[in-house]
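Holo prediction — zinc ion.
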Amino acid sequence: MSRAADERVQWLKSSPMLLAHLLPLAAIWTGVHLRDVIICWVLLVVRMFFITAGYHRYFAHRSYKLGRAMQFIMAFGAMTSSQKGVLWWSGYHRHHHRFSDLQEDIHSPKKGFWWSHIGWIMCSKFHKPNYDLIPDFAKYPELRFLDRYWALPPTMLAIGVFLIAGWSGLWIGFFLSTVLLWHCTFFINSLAHVFGRRRFVTTDTSRNSWLLAILTLGEGWHNNHHHFQASVNQGFYWWELDVTYYVLRGFEFLGLAHDLKRPPEAALKRNLIKDGHTDIGMLKDLPGRALDALAQTAQNTKDRIVVATQQVAGSIFEATQEAAESISQVGRQGADSTSR
Ligand SMILES: [Zn+2]
Ligand SMILES: [Zn+2]
């Protein structure tokens, strides 16, 4: 897949994000306390929940319902993760599902693993939110406000952590957990489309991975998710660990969330690869690979022709030179004998 000019990485604009990766190293000078590590772990897990339950399952997929106050809390909580605004994140995620692994897909690993993981965030093309992708939530002024001032929630959290735990708390508790949270989230765009097993035939390359499910509180069942996007649970069976779903069931029990959508039994039995259905998502990849192989063969053949032509030309040149030398030698000998 080709990349347009506005898909080039903007290093300067992305420098705050890159700098955040280095800031945890400042703990070399402050030291690390047990309190910092606990804050890091808690902020990683709690904010992962807000991302998966909020940005992903609620705002992007509407897989359950919330009241307006809870909706705001979910948006604010997810935004403390510093993954841009709620409308930006969820809108572009809807776009990913609409065009999974096609040329239009904003972060298909078919454009390269690095691109799908973080490159697409570092270019200018997807800098601004597209409210057309998410009009159902863009109609709320409080969400538009949050989306516009998306740096506010993480800044407030960072200040809070600093006031509680000082500099070492900031480096480890806030920045280290934020960086880890970023990459665990990004793994779903990159690794979950290249690593793991496929249960369902989907038109994309999504996979299921228990390891990613542990790291992301249930998002690793990505093939399940692409198969039935409206489902609030991404682990479809009891052995598919999905912590986000368990917490949301707790919310449901407490009356904080309602109308949780679960996949019907028929959906769990539909398009199973083990039933012999052709795996279109992977097949779609084959013509691309075949074309790449063909282009490589053509290039190799072209290279070989160029080398062979050069060799032939070299041989002709040498033979011509030798012939010319022999003729001139014969000529000289003839002239010598005539002069005698
Ligand atoms: Zn999704
Ligand atoms: Zn996906």
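READOUT: The chain is about 60% helix and 0% strand.
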